[in-house]
Amino acid sequence: MTQALRHDSMRARNLGVVLGEVRKSGPISRAALAEITGLTKTTVSKMVGDLIDSGMVTESGAVRDGERGRPGTAVELSGERVAALGLEINVDYLSACVVDLTLRVRTRCAQAVDNRTASPVETMSHLQELAQKAVDEAQAQGLFIAGTTIAVPGPVDGGLIHAAPNLGWHDVRVPDLLDLPAEVDNEANLAALGELWFGSAPEDFLHVSGEIGIGAGLVVGGALFRGARGLAGELGHVVVTPDGPACRCGGRGCLEQYAGQDALLRAAGLAGAPGGVPGGVPELLERLRAGEPRPLEACERAGQALGVALTSAVHLMDPGTIVLGGVFAPLFEWIAEPARRTMTARLSTMRHTVPELTVSRLGGDAATLGAAGRVIHRVIADPYLWRRFASR
Amino acid sequence: MTQALRHDSMRARNLGVVLGEVRKSGPISRAALAEITGLTKTTVSKMVGDLIDSGMVTESGAVRDGERGRPGTAVELSGERVAALGLEINVDYLSACVVDLTLRVRTRCAQAVDNRTASPVETMSHLQELAQKAVDEAQAQGLFIAGTTIAVPGPVDGGLIHAAPNLGWHDVRVPDLLDLPAEVDNEANLAALGELWFGSAPEDFLHVSGEIGIGAGLVVGGALFRGARGLAGELGHVVVTPDGPACRCGGRGCLEQYAGQDALLRAAGLAGAPGGVPGGVPELLERLRAGEPRPLEACERAGQALGVALTSAVHLMDPGTIVLGGVFAPLFEWIAEPARRTMTARLSTMRHTVPELTVSRLGGDAATLGAAGRVIHRVIADPYLWRRFASR
DNA sequence: CCGAATTAATCCACGTTATGGACTTAATAT
DNA sequence: ATATTAAGTCCATAACGTGGATTAATTCGG
């Protein structure tokens, strides 16, 4: 239910509105902010003053909006004080990054670890080291870490990972294993948000994360759609052929059995081992470029299967556009065309526009960036909460 | 973007919060309202006074919350003043209803019209008559009609019906053909909302409307999910078998080809004609009850296909529960079991709870009721807007 | 080169809204 | 009958945004 407002919550919201507008409209004068938000110049001035005091905003030169008259002093987000830590646990690596309020990446580090063989405790201890390194570097730059988010490959329910089949984790309460207050979210969700904030994607899109599994994150009106229990977006298990090959999810003919990384490599005649040998995808790319028929055929079929699953997804969720990320990003050239063809054949009669298929520009970094970005966006939405911590 | 708040909008929101709580928590004292909303008793008292003045709330007897002390005077929604008109255009009938602020149905009328053979203008002129009758009756009861919504079978984009294949309508701007300010929305969407508000469904569910076509409306946290362009929920065209029979949507093997009303009747050996002969479903019910093997087999197959499509829907949208409405309501007994079996087999490994399948308790009335309910819920969310019109 | 016009930002008195403690009212318990 | 408890109202106060006046910094026209 919507919460009742009091004077302080009104102020908090308005502060968020003003800061959000500063973020959106770049360097902008107080007068223009007043115009856009509908608040008076007086109110905006006071708020901008507070935001400057708390180190979230700085003045930067002058702007001339009209032709005549006194020019305004522009204000913009300051990246010098508030920052966020994004962490990612994936099947074969860990990564961390620190992002400032302007969404500039200030620190970034990664480490190859096989988390399938390591225990959750071991993995988390590696992650702790990586996080500490990133935090130290950030503090050396004078940054204050407002919060941390961890991306994990699997459905998350309030910090608890009930089952992450690709990691082999069961009932792990991730934040408890880290010496840092942190929140946890699904890798596919955060990758979608990463694409939204760092990849200049539109306001409405479906981001497809092709990894060992295939996940998807739907963004509508700039907000992530999570479903009733936060488990939405499991594109990998959408039914492509009801009596197709058995899937580890218990179903048959799921998309993952046609376009998942393992299935794709196997169909291409590479790496029969589950999980794929290291270098599987680079090898596949090489053979595709060399024009070998079997890999080409494998991509064609995977693309068609993806097209079928996306057709169902479009009918059900009506995304604006579709962004292919993860391993589908390097494979875009070979996968997108058959997928697009399949979708167009099946959708064009009912809709006058079939969602466009585009490539992710972030690839594998999307989730880590999204994790940090989520914290930043929360601070911007409610700067009142953070003003004490951020101020010098 | 979220809007900046001023004193008046703060008051408007709080008034809505209080009224919403009155709706939700039935007869309730001012003190309890203050407790729940977090506002002070003073503020709540003033607001309740305003709401009583505008005829939206009445005092009703006393309530004793604790054991000792002065009992509170209960306030609850008043159904005596504010009401809403819901209209529905469907393939073979028109209907109208007037609902008051307490969601009690005050007037209800319907008319059988074959809208496939009638032109949009003819249909709308019939609807105008029906609406006028309902409005007159409501005014005779002293009710004030706060607004009108029209339910139509087909995707709607801001009042414009681009193409409603089941009606044979193209580019019809529905509100322009009615002598009444009204909004238009998709029948499947409004049926889902009707189920939410009138059928005591939970806060999260997917409502499946089995008519000639199969639509679905997803409700998450009490709000309808519409997708980027408002076209979400086309369950009927989710792919069940990629190389199945051709569908009028241009695809192949869509759910509608297995579980749509026409396909179902045909498979049961009834009514080869598209659209079904009148009495098709009652006849089918009779034969099912008689235990005829071919209709039973048809329902079994339709249920399995529905289960496959719902499996994809659950993976993508993660609904809490699933409500079967429209023709699936009377057929529930024969369709639900195979659908449930199929879903459980495919979903239970990945999720520890498979969404429950339940019957709609409203059947065909859901959309008309939802149309009226939408207006009521808007008034309750923002009573400030309506206080002048409603007040004595 | 200087005054008029124009726009930005700040200042200050004011109106609106919610607050919180005091007070009144109405019930139960002792 | 008196104390206790809780509901509802009253009133002075605080928080916040408003809007007009003022000051500041430009450009334009003569």
From TrEMBL, chains A, B:
InterPro entries: ATPase_NBD, HTH_MarR-typ, ROK, WH-like_DNA-bd_sf, WH_DNA-bd_sf. Residues 18-64 form the HTH marR-type domain. Gene3D superfamilies: 3.30.420.40, Winged helix-like DNA-binding domain superfamily/Winged helix DNA-binding domain. It comes from the Bacteria. Belongs to the ROK (NagC/XylR) family. This is ROK family transcriptional regulator. It comes from Streptosporangium longisporum.
